[in-house]
Amino acid sequence: KARIFGHSSFAMLRSLAHRALRPVAARIASPAHLSRAPASIPQRFMSMEGSKTLQNLKDAFAGEAMAATRYEFYAQRADIEGYADLATLFRSLAEGEKNQAMGHLEFLQHEVGDPVTNQPIGNSHENVASAIVGEEHDSTNMYPGFAQTARSEGFEDAAEWFETLAHAETQHKKRLQRALQELQNA
After folding, report:
1. How far apart are the first and last CA of the chain?
2. What is the C-alpha separation between 47 and 52, in angstroms, rounded?
3. Most Cβ neighbours (<10 Å): which of 104, 142, 157, 158?
4. How much is the pLDDT for 46?
5. What is the spatial distance between Cα 184 and Cα 186, in angstroms, rounded to a whole number?
6. Cβ atoms within 10 A of the Cβ of 75, count?
7. d(CA 19, CA 175)
8. Cβ-based neighbours of 96, under 8 Å, separated by 6 or more
9. pLDDT tens, position by position, 2-32
10. Would residue 49 be called left, alpha or beta, if left means φ above 0 and alpha means ψ between -120 and 50 degrees?
């Protein structure tokens, strides 16, 4: 297959993306960020409760997380089609989207905790407990409801897929419960 990007232009794009993301990635990767608010967030700030800004942060977090997953999917397709440079570009962009989502999550943890479960997050105990709440919801409410809807609309394959995912989420919850127990016993 023909290469979509010339080596020099692709290398330049990748270099620019990495340089732009380095400050974000360094801050996110730093263990110190786990115990303090980012420098851009004042120690005392107004509550964002009920604000459009809080909703924007939640929406931005969801959008960036979805973009990262989409770009990983696109990278796999590019690999299959023989476009290695394009796959590398998509993976680089996915990493950038993930870092942006992490930045949004830094703000959200101080306001609402986990933007999906509304549980406190920050330390490992809180993070695992929040993940358990999310997996419980997915396995007992979300996917079974999706399966029921799909089946009622005549989409049996989709219903079976959702039921498979409900089972997977149950297994995730059990693994997290064991991990939480180990943390509590440590």
Report:
1. 54
2. 12
3. 104
4. 73
5. 6
6. 21
7. 37
8. 17, 20, 21
9. 444 444 444 444 444 444 444 444 444 443 4
10. beta
